[in-house]
Amino acid sequence: MVDLNARHEALLESHHGALSQAAECLLEATSWSLATPALMLRTAVPAASQVVAVGDLGRWIPHLGPDLDAFVRLRRQGVDVGEAYARCRATDGEAFLGAWGSLRGERPLVSHDDLNQFAVLSQQGFSRSPRNLLVVVNWGERVTAFLVACERQRRRTPPVGPG
Questions:
Q1: ∠ at Cα 145 (143, 150), nearest 5°?
Q2: 7-43 pLDDT, tens digit each
Q3: In sequence order, what are the residues at sequence separation of 6 or more whose Cβ sits closer than 8 angstroms to the Cβ of residue 61?
Q4: Is residue 126 classed as helix, strand or coil in its secondary structure?
């Protein structure tokens, strides 16, 4: 966990401008909605940062559709792939089979449930005092999300002008 926290901190330092922009946008918001800003960071070369609406994260992160969420939940509980497949096929039938078939060997990074959890985390950050911004990092092989205080960005922004 310490290593991940250090990596997150290093990313925040290297994307300070985008982080400050996203934090200012969040502080200007009067209420939380799926249009609330979040900061999306990608570590692939070239590394990129982008301010996106929380509700649009699914456009920027490869993800599974909701028909495969039950399968993902079972796998995260330690259920074998074959057994999870059989249970979901028995429970969800054609909807599950269609979603499974649409994968075509792709490896989405998050599930629909994960995207919903990002929205919940954003709501929690919005209601904190000081307000916190959702930051989502696409590492290429996985995705992490965390909150960062917007006030931290204001304190670190250097004064404008001579001096």
A1: 145
A2: 898 888 888 899 999 999 999 999 999 999 999 998 8
A3: 40, 109, 110, 115, 136, 138, 143
A4: helix
- β-bridge pairing 143-149 and 48-53: unpaired
Place of tokens 């497949």: 85
Average pLDDT estimate for 132-144: 92
pLDDT value, residue 152: 60
Where helices occur in the chain by DSSP H, the ranges are 2-14, 16-28, 57-60, 69-76, 81-103, 112-127, 150-156
DSSP letter at 146 equals E
As a whole number of angstroms, the distance between CA 126 and CA 156 comes to 20
pTM: 0.81
Could you read off the pLDDT of 53-97 as tens digits, one per residue?
999 999 988 888 888 989 899 988 999 989 999 999 999 999 998
Compute CA distances 78 → 91, 107, 119, whole Å: 18, 19, 25
- The tokens for 113 are 């449930």
Nearest to 126 by CA among 59, 7, 16, 35: 35
